[in-house]
User: Fold ABC transporter permease from Parasedimentitalea maritima.
Amino acid sequence: MNNERILNLAIRYGFLVLLAGIVMYFSLAAEGFASPRSAVFVLQSVAITGILALGVTSTLVVDGFDLSIGSVATSSLMLSAYSMVILEYSAFVTVLLCLTMGALVGLVNGLLIVKMRVPDLLATLGMMFLLIGLQRIPTQGNSIATGMRLPDGSIAEGTFAAEFLWIGRHRFDMFIEKLFPMPVVVFLLVAVAVWLFLGFTRHGRLMYAIGSNQRAAELVGTNVSRYKVLAYMISGVLASVGGILLAARLGRGDIASGNNLLLDSVAAALIGFAVLGAARPNAFGTAIGALFVGILLQGLTMMNAPYYTQDFVKGAVLVAALVFTFYLSSRRSSAGRH
Assistant:
């Protein structure tokens, strides 16, 4: 009985203990890591990744997977820049265009999967490559900035609207030496909204039911296809929100700025399986997973670890977290049967 109790405690709180241990280690080993300035920087660095990871979580809930989120975010970034710098649209129209683009990409992904029976990994991988190519065509692969020369020889005279830049650069007064960034506020609001939707609404519970046993969900009258399409549309919209925030922070359409978004957001979503022993996709775990990735990268950077080791460390932690979660969970199940 004591062994079973220890096992349950390890499954439920082991990852949080690991997170606390890493924070303590970096606080002692890296000067300035424990400062409010460093904490704000970590939060700002994980905000966009966390929003994308919450989109991935919505597809994982229905037993799917979205590989196109990084390219959707980058497409949203480039569309923002193209709309304001080249087409000279307002901030409101630009945001509306980006959100619509994300929803349409999610809709197409969902229809390919539920109507055309294309496996989710293949459908979203194909969409990823399509978007990567599509976003480069209007400027022939160049980044977008005010004053750039366009392919037709003209000069782009539009600028990023001040109210658009406010989304990515505004900081709120807090009880710390640095101000609280707007993207972090958006991330927290999105995390709470997704958490409430998935955990406390009928629609969220039905999505979990589809992920657990699709056939059983169909037998009780659940419109499985509709909820799967909804999950991918949520993912697309959240990815476009991440791209909007990135564009607003950078103030230009940097074609290479979203290179690591896919890997980091997937890592955060999967690490979330280990938080509180959930062993399933969940918004709270994903938010903690994003925070974990941010803390890990910030600590390694402040300790002057070579940049090329960071992906290895992220991968090692991800594998360890998943093995820890599912191996111990399987042992708990076996112990329960005996």
